[in-house]
Design a protein that fits this description.
- There is one protein chain.
- By secondary structure, the chain is α+β, with helices and mostly antiparallel strands.
- It has one domain (about 25-145).
- The protein has helices spanning about 5-20, 30-40, 55, 100-105, 120-130, 135-145; strands at about 45-50, 65-70, 85, 110, 115.
- The strands form 2 sheets. Strands 1-2-3 form a 3-stranded mixed sheet. Strands 4-5 form a two-stranded antiparallel sheet.
- Strand 4 and strand 5 (about 115) form a beta hairpin.
Length: about 160
């Protein structure tokens, strides 16, 4: 076999497996979200899952709930339960509005028609927020970053302040 055929064979055999690793079934309460969106006539194209859902999608850890960014044009009063909640302006400190997050494909992945925030953005947010509970997620994302080819180091730049 020649090099071109080897590369083509690799893409046919293995590339679908890489994408298959990102599975919405990894996100706890995803079916509940899907049902809530359906019953409220809200299109998945007008929302983006944020927070720990991006870690769960990649099998880094289980999410406890689903946080959701919704577009300005969406009536988001449909959602706020123990398992599902609206996140407003979560990434505004990086100059990323909810609408930019939802409609700019640089800021999210799409899996089965649902948008999930890129891990680089959630990583920067967790660094900025600096809560005790974020430290384990930062470590998981650092490990993921070192093992994947899909991490975009230029997507969001944030350097946490150094301690004195």
């Amino acid at each position: 076999m020649n090099r071109t055929a080897d590369i083509l064979c690799w893409h046919i055999l293995y590339e679908p497996m890489i994408e298959a690793d990102k599975n919405l079934a990894n996100i706890k309460n995803f079916e509940k979200l899907r049902d809530e969106l359906d019953s409220s006539s809200v299109s998945p194209s007008d929302v983006c899952l944020v927070g720990s859902s991006c870690l769960a999608l990649r099998k880094l850890r289980l999410n406890n709930d689903i946080d959701l960014a919704v577009s300005n044009k969406t009536n988001h009063t449909f959602l706020n339960t123990d398992d599902l909640s609206i996140s407003v302006g979560r990434y505004s400190l990086f100059d990323i509005t909810n609408n930019q997050l939802i409609y700019n494909s640089d800021y999210h992945d799409v899996v089965d028609g649902y948008k999930i925030v890129r891990p680089e953005i959630e990583y920067a947010f967790k660094q900025y927020r600096g809560k005790k509970k974020d430290k384990a997620d930062i470590e998981l994302l650092n490990e993921y970053r070192s093992e994947t080819d899909e991490w975009d180091t230029e997507l969001v730049e944030y350097s946490p302040p150094t301690s004195y």
